[in-house]
Amino acid sequence: MTRMEWTNSRYLTLPVTRNEQLVPVVLAVTSLPLLEPIGFLHPEEHTTLTGEALQHYLSGRLAAKLAASHFTQVPAAEICIRTGVFGQPLLYCPGHSNIQVSIAHSGSHAIAVVFPEGHPMGVDIEDTRNARLLSPLTPAEATLAADPLLLWTAREALSKVLKTGLTIDLELLAVAAVSFESGFLIVTFAHFPQYKAISWMAGPMACSLVLPLRSEIDLAVLKTLTYPVS
Ligand SMILES: CC(C)(COP(=O)(O)OP(=O)(O)OC[C@H]1O[C@@H](n2cnc3c(N)ncnc32)[C@H](O)[C@@H]1OP(=O)(O)O)[C@@H](O)C(=O)NCCC(=O)NCCS
Question: What residue ranges are annotated as transmembrane (predicted)?
């Protein structure tokens, strides 16, 4: 992979540990106003989308390829991301199995995380400039001292881990509690206590990464990723 052509993009091997074992995870962000593919698409990924939908698709694929290519050392154009029956991304990478990707895009900004199938994760981003008024899902949520948009991204990232998206009763995604650590919001869920979200603001973007509750991330390293989407 030629890293130089991915200007304004950044990937990061995230130090995630579980039971003192390192879990391989790569997170990538991009903020390129892409109007046409620049060589990173697999032949199967070429699309007839146009306009804003194309921009979203290309941004998301770029972030996903950046993360997947760094994870596997396979060139971006040889990696194929197909779409499952629920819209979920399916990662195909020659010589690798049991790895997955989660993708989110908003305008020219995108984020993606590549992780082992055995350690489910999900991402979401939302642009605060396009945000609508968001109400708490439950009376308990109304008491939480947290930005409603950050909570929204945490829920949406969880919905991607579950592969349902927002097609379920949204109360199932309700937040149980929040705490603050090193500038990040740590979110736990009322009905999915096995997961947590790490949420943060990067410039105008609200971002969340969901991972298993008892896995640990080095937040100082995660913080270095905030620059490209600010
Ligand atoms: C998943 C969902 C929450 C994404 O929210 P969004 O604000 O539209 O878009 P985001 O930028 O946050 O995320 C988009 C990415 O989510 C991923 N995604 C879509 N559906 C998903 C699912 N069921 N599970 C996990 N990830 C999913 C895709 O990778 C998508 O990007 P891509 O289409 O370019 O590959 C939303 O689309 C949803 O609720 N979908 C429900 C399932 C659905 O309606 N599917 C339609 C096809 S059957």
Answer: 170-191
pLDDT at residue 223, rounded to an integer? 86
Centre of ligand 1 from the C-alpha of residue 58, in Å: 14
pLDDT score for 138: 84
How many distinct structural domains can be found in the chain? 1
State the closest ligand 1 atom to the C-alpha of 159, by its place in the atom list counted from 1: 3
Q: What are the 10-residue block averages of pLDDT along the chain, 230 residues in total?
A: 44 93 95 75 91 91 95 95 97 97 92 97 92 79 87 97 96 95 95 97 91 96 68
Beta bridge partners of 89: 83
Q: Is any atom of ligand 1 closer than 6 Å to the C-beta of 86?
A: yes
The residues, any chain, with a CB within 8 Å of residue 56's CB and separated by 6 or more, are 105, 106, 107, 110
Query: What pLDDT score was predicted for residue 161?
Result: 98
Ligand 1 touching residue 183 (CB < 6 A): no
How much distance in Å is there from the Cα of 165 to the middle of ligand 1? 6
CATH of the domain at 132: 3.90.470.20
The predicted pLDDT at position 207 comes to 93
In this structure, the residue with its CA closest to atom 32 of ligand 1 is 57
Q: Is 49 in the pocket of ligand 1 (CB under 6 A)?
A: no
Domain membership of residue 174 as a residue range: 3-229
Phi, psi angles (nearest 5°) of residue 65: -65, -40
For 48, the token pair is 């007839």
